Amino acid sequence: MVQAAYRNEFFLLRDIWKARKRIGSIVKRTPLTFSQPLSSITGASVYLKLENMQDTGAFKIRGAANKILSLSKEQREKGVATFSTGNHGIAVAYVANQLNIPATVCISNRVPTGKVNRLKQLGAKVEVVGENQDDAEAYCYELESKYGITVVKPFDDLDVIAGQGTIGIEIIHDLPEIDHVVIPLSGGGLLAGIAYFLKHTDPAIHVTGVTMEHAAVMHESLKQGKAVNLPEVNTLADSLLGGIGKDNRHTFSMIKQYIDKSELVSEDSIAQGILAMMDHHKMVIEGAAAAGVGWLLQQQDIADQNIVIVITGNNIDQETIEGLL
């Protein structure tokens, strides 16, 4: 059964502010950029939160850094491990490398080759296990029980959620008058952290989660009111694949409380989002990051709103890009 077991609101807000200070030496404060082209197309004032400009190419470094920097000396010496569809694994490997901590990353065979190579370049030991993230997760916890390694969860961990929530601090600082924030949705650590902070700053801010139309586990779990599993499929938004865990303790209940709407985005719209960012902003972003832009381009009723689209990452294979051109 999914449980609501996160700390009370005061302490989580405090932890987000503490995370901001803790991760400052490793994590960049990314720009919030006004998009004139997307604003002209939609009639809204569109701003892009460019997490693709992190050194790891994605927002995941925030949560990974906050978690690992919170570990004791003994825990660091034993090392860290994680299971990931790519970006979280890259973040854990990068932070561990910066701090000289051994890292193991467990992934499924669906993770693109480019991300696997990047993990190895960062010094991580890569274990390819099974067909989906659940298989990789199970193996990761075997390593924890055998060797005392600390598992850095991709999303369902309060330190990770607090790290991702620092994006909310930066958004509010740069654009106090926000109507709508659009955030890619998978396991929910990113949306939970940002939405939690924003809703406690201004409850009127509308939060939309966007995800691919197939294998959208969190979206379907929200519809059914419980954690569900779905078979994974090939998608441009491969970073959004994976389950939320039957024993999900934090993100599911938080998202139920703080999200206003969860929307599905077609593969064609995700492709349009990738191409729009290449055309209008000369940026190459991954499919998961393009879900928000793809959603935006399909909207008819957003004129005159201040909308922030969180651009989550840029880790995309060359062959994927070539297939869209």
UniProtKB/TrEMBL annotation:
Catalytic reaction equation(s): L-threonine = 2-oxobutanoate + NH4(+)
Domain of life of the organism encoding this protein: Bacteria
Enzyme nomenclature, EC number: 4.3.1.19
The keyword Protein biosynthesis is assigned to this record: no
Pfam families: PALP
Function: Catalyzes the anaerobic formation of alpha-ketobutyrate and ammonia from threonine in a two-step reaction. The first step involved a dehydration of threonine and a production of enamine intermediates (aminocrotonate), which tautomerizes to its imine form (iminobutyrate). Both intermediates are unstable and short-lived. The second step is the nonenzymatic hydrolysis of the enamine/imine intermediates to form 2-ketobutyrate and free ammonia. In the low water environment of the cell, the second step is accelerated by RidA.
Name of this chain's protein: threonine ammonia-lyase
Domain Tryptophan synthase beta chain-like PALP: 27-313
